[in-house]
Amino acid sequence: MKKVLVFLTIGVFIISCGENIEQKAGHHLDNAKEAFSIGNYNVAKQEIDSIRILYPKAFETRRQGIKLMQLIEEAEQLRIIEYEDSMIAGAQAAFDKIKADYAFEKDERYQDVGLYTIKSQAPQRNTDRTYIRAQVDELGRMTLVSSYRGSSYIHHDWLKLSVGEFYVDTPESKDRHEFTDLGICYERLSFINGNDGGAAAFISANKDADITYTLYRKTGPESSRAVYKNLKMTKDDRYAIAQLYDLSQVLLSLNEHKSLRDEADRHLKFIRSKMKEEVSAEEAVQEDK
Q1: 161, 211 in Cβ contact below 8 A?
Q2: CA dist 184 → 17, 147, 153 (Å)
Q3: Which of 170, 151, 150 has the alpha carbon at shortest distance from 160?
Q4: How many CA atoms lie within 13 A of 46 on its CB side?
Q5: Which carries the bigger pLDDT value, residue 43 or residue 225?
């Protein structure tokens, strides 16, 4: 008889402990629900994490916490999508306002991404001079091109741009195209997709100043330099590159927000598919009963 009482006592104790654990965990779940209702998702997730860490055996409360966590993640992605939609609308409006100022080129047979340029900088209009031009693709990636014209090749590798004592160096570029036409040597040195060491930003910030630039070529293994000569950027070139730099910033922003929105949409679809699978599993269990 005493043994029976002992086992009954132990059983009651185990049950009461289980109920007590669920009750304590339930306080965190209630806090999470309240935080979720007012849109404080970080606090809600912290409360759910507390259930997992402090009460690993509160199985029913943890199960409810997982369901709530899915609702929180769903709401977070919807919030991100709403925000990104507003940012996309703003960036698109900014782009629509200025896009008529640029020439757009895209050959659908060969190009996946089109290019924006300034007509005054087109190579066919500038065969008689050395200058710096720019172009921006539809994704906002900007490329600077150092176009050299002379009686012989100089094989230049990088540039230095200066305004008084302030200057910026481009990185060394191996993207150089050379050709000869009617005895004249031409070089096109490109700094692709914004890899210009800040040169485009420097030109944009100093478009109203006299910018001097120097063409360098590498002359030894220790990156020693040989100077071709110092040149002055024209006002038209400074303004054209500054204008394209502004376009680049708008398009980069637009495409970044589109990418973030797409990512949130993919995440939302994944969350909802998991929620749907769990509902289907629960319904199957109920049918078996």
Answers
A1: yes
A2: 92, 13, 9
A3: 170
A4: 7
A5: 43
